[in-house]
Amino acid sequence: MSLPTYDWSALGAAERAALLRRPRVESRAELGRAVAAIVADVRARGDQALADHTRRFDGVETRSLAVSAAEFDAAETALSAAARAAMGRAIDNVRRFHEAQRAAPLSIETSPGVRCERLELPLAAVGMYVPAGSAPLPSTAIMIAVPAAIAGCRERVLCTPPRRDGGADPAVLVAARRCGVTRVYKVGGAQAIAAMAYGTETIPKVDKICGPGNAWVTAAKLLVAQDPEGAALDLPAGPSEVLVIADDGARAAFVAADLLAQAEHDPAAQVLLVTPSRRLATDVAAEVTRQQAGLSRRAITEEALAQSRIILVPDLATAVAVSNAYAPEHLIIEVREPRALLGSVTAAGSVFLGDWSPESIGDYCSGTNHVLPTYGYARAWSGLSVHDFVRRVTVQELSAAGLRDLGPVAATLAGLEGLDAHANAVAVRLAALGPL
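^ thats the sequence. predicted structure below, dont judge the formating
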């Protein structure tokens, strides 16, 4: 599959907007109805509905939803020593980066006798969704479980789709247990989201659900997040994506490898190269074809590349402007002075600077989180962090002197809004204090 090349300068506003449009996912209305039916069924029938939907979508007869201690032990022996060591190294880096995110308590005196504070309290129960469709993602278990543990979430529940043999992926189980998660359930898709949002006989209800997934999972997360009786979601997302900004000093082989690494995630994934170098554009297109021939997931990359492209721009400033308009999940900057462009980036989930920073490292083990906003949501949303697992509660405490000083301000403002009960709550206290 050859990547098509477009000249940004030769396009009008409508054509540029079309060029940056994401691939269309399944009909939202049709998908929404199907997901709503699954969610309602799980709420009504609990575990039996989970068994029925697992049979329908995964082709698996459910014997036990919960992963047993024996299954966890068997998973450890199924992985090689090298795999376990790599997982340990990744967990260490992710833990190190996320531990640094914990905020100190905030307490200041805004006026004499008026103290304002902000506390961070962990969520009581969080749900983690770890996909395991075309490829199991133990790295996702790490990315969610580590910050949840650092935040101090007491109950951590993980759902992951079963394999054909009815078991969970061993690497996912090892990652989960090494991150302190032992409540793992073999159920996936929209039905897993419904189970965690509302609870079943076996799966406990949680306060928030984190983790990526396909269109069905995303639709279910959005649906239950709108219900006060459901569960909040971490962030909205769509298919995975990467945008690479590269100049004529970039290595075509590196750029092509970065594009293909993201294209293999999903047939609906999208990859973009934005460059001022026509020579690099030609070389990268050829290199993509060459490297793709040896990949095991070639059928998936073919579909992803069909909706991907190379965009020629007049300069790097325009390249950054194009990237900001697109708001990619992953932004790779492979130019001679990558850090010089960083200050101009205003919308991206995670940024990778320089020739030696492949996106794969961020996916697995640099320490940053790979649960990121996609589909343009990076304009307003951030990637997963420790802050997603806490609630920030504000506190205020006034002394009598503080109320005497600040109370009239509140009473005056309440009067401007016509809220006399607000003003009265201050006035009765001022009256109790008496005159100075």
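The chain has a mean pLDDT of 95.
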